[in-house]
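Backbone geometry tokens:
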Amino acid sequence: MIKYRLIVVLFTYLLMPSLLWAIESSSPSLGGDNVLVIYKKNDVLSKKIAGYYANSRHVPLSQVVPVDIIGSPDSINRRKFASIHQQISPYLNKNIKVLLLTWHAPYKVDCMSITSAFTLGFDEKYCSHTATLARGCHLTANNLFFNAPKEMLWQQDDLRLSMMLSGRTFDEAKQLIDRGIAADNSQPIGQGYLVRTKDNARSTRWSTFESIADLWPQKKGISLHYIDDRYNPNGTTVRNKQNIMFYLTGQTHVPDIATNSYLPGAIADHLTSSGGAGIGSKGQMKVYRWLEAGVTGSYGAVIEPCNYQEKFPNAQILIPSYMGGDSLIEAYWKSVQQPGEGVFVGEPLASPWRDD
């Protein structure tokens, strides 16, 4: 165990300076003119969310685009996805860096998450389970944006990051958008909780949690706390907490999240098998419960990923990147090494530490 801890700490230092302080960059910050808002043309809620987002974030109307998706299926096939991508292709100039999908379903393209398909292109190398790959646990291809410098987004004309933004009601989506805007340059003072739970299978990130909390306990007004809740008979000590900015954990259902208060721009996720698979209440807890509790961004798997750390956000990259000035979508995307089976959900432009 000591040897393993030393390896983790060494890896942490190898990530410097991107771990402790994001590299200063002259690259421009993302704004509304860099977003293509995509909605389902026959879906009233999707269109209404798209309109409110465009108006609130000053997205040009020419960058609010309908696509032909009927109903809310969980998944579409690769042929349908190719058709949708063809519909938006005329709008994909080099200025567009963010694709925002204003719906909660479909969330899959065959074996990939829909946000990863839009960003990476549909390719079975990003999937664990395909027609030719045996069942079981498998790693997938890496995300080219993993731990990348901010400049990379602007240096590659065809690199666009994707995120979903929706809710069960328009009011839920509106509140989420408003929180993202309120986060901008807010320079928050608050807390981050990185939790090891009694669910060992879903707590595989605990060593990275402990390492960053040890190395970076307090920066820029945010205090990071590594919480070991393995032996807590009440499930978690993270209840009735105030001013939460980060909350990363691993459980099928995270208790008491609604008892806490979250700062605008807050990020939270829980490593589990199907957190991104829909918006309903059946099965494992969905990432939308975080958003309904007041969080601004989350991430969850849409297909059984197994508990590889590579397939979930790495706190040692996510937190420093976000606090270094990256927008929510940039920090989240660069923190997941293998996001092919996970969906990013939230308000993409939220930038609490933006300084321009």
